[in-house]
Amino acid sequence: MSFKILLSLLVITNAFFIGCSTTDDIDINSAEKAFKEAKEYEDDERYEEAQRRYEEIKNKFPYSSWAKESDLRIAEIYYKKEDFSTAALSYSNFKFLYPNHPQIAYVSLQLALSYFNQLPPTIDRDLSKGHNAIQEFNLVLQKYPGTEFAKVAADKKKITEDKLAEKELYIADFYYKRDHYLSALKRYENLLTMPGPESITKTAYYKGAVSALEIGELNKAKQLIQTLKQKYPTSDEARDTEDLKAKYGI
User: Fold this and answer.
1) What is the value of pTM for the model shown?
2) Model confidence over 67-103: pLDDT tens digits?
3) Cα(12)–Cα(47) distance, integer angstroms
4) Is the pLDDT of residue 4 over 80?
5) Helix or strand or coil: residue 118?
6) Are 194 and 161 in contact (CB under 8 A)?
7) CA distance 70 to 34
8) How far apart are CA 244 and CA 68, in angstroms?
9) What is the DSSP string of 149-200?
10) Looking at the predicted structure, is the pLDDT value of residue 157 above 90?
11) Confidence class of residue 174 from pLDDT cuts 50, 70 and 90?
């Protein structure tokens, strides 16, 4: 065997044994110091450097508590950078790996907020992340009732529900204005199964009744009108149904 080959084997073998070192070799004090330094970078908003150092902690001290905390800090950095889709993935992974972590209630709320913050400012765009947000807000409300986390979850959940209802009304009205009454009716009926502002619910009853009348669904129209009058007897929409009787002969 040549000297070069022997030397190569010695290098590979040495690297193997270094890589297979046990947790007894971990210098916990070094891990804590490295974490504090990474946190200082994070606090100074030097996020790229902070993230790089947190990743180093995870690689060098994988079995230490500081590796776990680094996972959480990395998720937080994504959130601070407004990379909400990656933040959601990071928080979700953290919940899966560390379900009994002392800050798991906070992490659960952050996961929900990461979905919430992906919602566009206008309802004419994709709001599908709203359903993910509501699901996660519900988990916070169920698991941590009476906490500040639950209070935030309840407030944000209502905002999300209202936005989804506005979106559904937007689509229903789109069909309604174009005389596509069957499609409109389906959307208005769907709205009546969703939580949302009272104003939208009243509109859904009234325009749903009109749509039903336009396609000859007389019984369905009568049912919608009756329910509207029972629930909102003094509303403008309930009064306007009187005109429908004359127009459609009901």
Assistant:
1) 0.83
2) 999 999 999 999 999 999 999 999 999 999 999 999 9
3) 35
4) no
5) coil
6) yes
7) 10
8) 64
9) HHHHHHHHHHHHHHHHHHHHHHHHHHHHHTT-HHHHHHHHHHHTTS---HHH
10) yes
11) very high
